[in-house]
Every structure is written in structure tokens, then in C-alpha cells.
Amino acid sequence: MTEDAGLPILTPPRSAPAAFDDPAAAVARLEALYREATGFLAEQFGAVVRHGRPQARIRAFYPEIRLTTTSFVKIDSRLSFGHVAGPGTYSTTVTRPDLFRNYLHQQIALLIQNHGVPVMIGASETPVPIHFAVAGNPSVSVPQDGVLDFSLRDVFDVPDLATTNDDIVNGTRLTNPDGSFPLAPFTAQRVDYSLARLSHYTATDPAHFQNHVLFTNYQFYVDEFEAFARAALADPGSGYTSFVVPGNQEIAGPDDPVDLPAKLPQMPSYHLKRKDGQGITLVNIGVGPSNAKTATDHIAVLRPHAWLMVGHCAGLRNSQSLGDFVLAHAYVREDHVLDDDLPVWVPIPALAEIQIALQQAVAEVTRLDGYELKRIMRTGTVATIDNRNWELRDQSGPVQRLSQSRAIALDMESATIAANGFRFRVPYGTLLCVSDKPLHGELKLPGMASEFYRTQVASHLQIGVRAMELLREMPIERIHSRKLRSFEETAFL
């Protein structure tokens, strides 16, 4: 027990950090420390709710990983992750090691292998907020303000937004408060914040999310995804084991019923799972860059291997037809939601691995190739805006900018998803389907839409799924290439 502003602080027993050269043992120690910290907080919280305010502050700490190296030995430069830039001490706090077990094992193993030194595992100096400590405990709930006769923050640590931010991934934080360098792109509090938000916005537990994420802006794609999932579950050779819908309902049989919640969440998510986590998640983000940013801000902490946008767009060229595909190789960012995090002058490059997978998937599903493929697919610039009714404004300005940019399609999500992929080092791509041509008098009308949806949505969704399967077959070091890494990068993906 220690003192804080005259009040004693009650903490679990604190053991000295230990060195590990076995990644499995290191992860097991992280899990034990985390269970000890959160178990202590949950137990103390229950006592406080039953008996009232104690005469002490109650605190427990996140576990941390720490690495110190004194060598300038150059690591294999073909690998974009798994090593630190130079001599020094590097550290990161860790939350939910049970959820991130495979990721942590992989990243720690690379550190030990590449630097030839052990990692140190121990308790950090960062307190675990009580809200996050009990978030996964169904037997404990945090009372709302006014229920208790004292403020929770007088007894427990609560989420601190001053330290829950993106300064590591944005490149604005070079060192941790203790002088060590960041080892991972997100701190434990930042991860916990997003895990809580994911459960709220998607109505599924973060544990169900798979490593390949499709984003869409229409419910029709969800219906097709469920149909695809049920067909996959009927095929023992597909590798898919179950399908999860909002409300955490999980089915393993192709004919098993699901009972969706009466009120769907803001961004319902559906998960076609594999035992290795290499399945596919579909998130219906709805319309608009704000939702696109919100979804990717939070899914990023799960460190997916790729995310793709498959949705509808306005075709801007008279040579396009309704139902044509658009493969984005550049973006015009007029969505504005990321301007403070990623300046608009930062280029968002196309990623060769993603582009090749998408083009191959289009060819496989449509059975067209080479010059014939050009009849239904254009590759070019996609413009993303934040005004759905841009057509109602004076056309001279917007149309001139679109023409100067050589844009071939316009939507409200793709550039946001790509830009956040670039910012978070998550491989990204976009394949859209032309649903209207407003500059050429072909507006989206009910009758046209029904025919369009019926003929095109199924193949478009299949293309997205097939592209993800092709990406899944790539070695991880190929998909996570150096194109998304800056001068001073964290060792962890």
C-alpha cells in the first residue's frame, strides 16, 4: 500500500519484472498479470458497491512488454516489422492478452529472434480504468452517476482521454513518458477504448472479428454475405467454421436460424469465422465519412491484415454503365474527417498486392480477362465527399475539380477508409460498383435500383470475398510491406 495526496493506495502485490526468451511463456505471464489486475479491481469494486466508499484509493496496473538493445546490427530490411530501429529501451502497455494471444506471440517471437535479447514482462505504471477492468465481466456493471453516494474517480482510476489518443500512429509522439520508445502502435488504454466502442457500435464482441474486413454501405450486401456464409458452412472443405451476427449469435450449420435484435446497432457486423482467425468480417457502415472513420478508428486496434471497401458509387464518365466496377488507384479526399490526423497533402498510394488480388477476383467471378475485363471495370481515381447532395450545389466548382483530378467515381466512404488504412498501417483497397450517373442524367430511381441490386450485388460481394481469400494466401510479410511504414516505426505491426 502506498500514499497518494494523503490517501493510502490499495494495490495487488507487485512482483519484479521477469526476462523471457520464450514467446509463449512471455504471453502467459502477460495474461496472468492482466487477470490479477482486473480480478483485483473487480473484487474491490464489488466490495465498494456493497459497503460504500473505502478509506483508500484502489489501483491496479496494466502489464507491459519492455525490450532493451544496445546493438546497431542491421536487421533484414525486407521485413517491415518485428524489429526496432536502433539501440535503446522500447515498451508498450498491454490489455486483453487473451484476445491478442496469437498477435503477441508472433510479435514477441520476432523481437527475440531479430535482436537476440529477452523481453521483460512486468507491471507498468499505467493504471487500469475501472470501466475497462470490468467491461468483460457479466457479473459486474458500473453504476451511472448519482447511484453511488461518492464519485467513482475518487476511489478508482477512470478512462483518461488526455492519454488515450493516436499520437503514436500519427507520428507526433516519439517517446513514452518514462523516456522509452513506443514498441506498439497503440497503448493499452487506447485499445480498451476501441474494444468498448466496437461492442457498442457493432453489437458483436471484438473476439469475433476476423483478420480480413469488408466494409459496405448497403444492407443488400449483408444479405448476400449471409447467403455466402451459409453455403460455406455447408461445405466441409471451405475452412469456415461458424457465422456470427449482431447480438453475438453464432451458428455452425448452414440451416441454423438466427434471431437478429429488434433494433440493429449503428454499424452491424457479421463474421464468417475460421479457427485461425483468418476468416472474413463484413461491417455495414452505412453512408458517410464519419461512420467510415469511426469504424476504422476502432477496428484498427485489432490489427487486421487487410480491409476493403465494397459499395456503391456514382460513375462520373459517360462511357461507364450502371453495374460497372471501379478499382480505385488514387483518391481525392474531400471528406475532411481526417484532416487533423492526416494532412490532405499526404498521398494515399495504391497497394500492388491489394490491386492485383482485386483484379484477379473480378476476373475469376466475372470470367472475363484482359481487354474484355475493361468493358466492365475501370481503374482510376475515386473522389470521396462529405455532402451527399452535392448535385444540388452550383456545378461549376465541384465538377471542375472532379474533372481536373481525373476522377472516374464518387462516393462518401472510400477515401476515408483508405486514408485511415494508411494512417494505421492496415493494407487497404477499394472496389466500387456504379449505381448511378448523376452528371449524365441517370439518377438512382426505385425501379432501376431494384434491377441493379438483383443482378450486381451478389457478384460484387463474391469478388470482395474472393479477394480476401487471395490475400489470405499471401505471406504476412508480403501483405504488410514497407510501403506503409515511416522512418521511425514501432516494432509491432
Per CATH, which architecture of the largest domain?
3-Layer(aba) Sandwich
**What is the number of beta strands?**
18
How does the helix and strand content classify structurally? alpha/beta
CATH topology grouping of the largest domain: Rossmann fold
Order of strands in the sheet with the most strands? Answer: 3-7-5-6-8
CA gyration radius, whole angstroms: 24 Å
Helix content: 25-40%
Categorize the overall geometry: globular
**Count of DSSP-assigned helices:** 12
SSE order, one letter for each helix or strand: EEEHEEEHEHEHEHEEEEHEEHHEHEHEHH
Task: Catalogue the unreliable spans.
Answer: none
- CATH superfamily of the largest domain, please? Nucleoside phosphorylase domain
Explain the overall architecture.
The structure is a single chain. The chain has helices spanning 23-51, 101-115, 130-133, 188-202, 219-233, 289-299, 352-366, 370-373, 396-404, 414-424, 446-472, 476-479; strands at 2-4, 7-10, 18-20, 57-58, 61-69, 88-93, 119-127, 181-182, 212-216, 242-245, 249-251, 269-273, 280-284, 306-315, 325-334, 377-385, 407-411, 428-436. It has 493 residues and is of the alpha/beta class. It has 2 domains: 2-197, 2-Layer Sandwich (amp nucleosidase, domain 1); 203-481, Rossmann fold (3-Layer(aba) Sandwich). α1 (23-51) crosses α2 (101-115) and α4 crosses α6. The radius of gyration is 24 Å and the shape is globular. The mean pLDDT is 89.
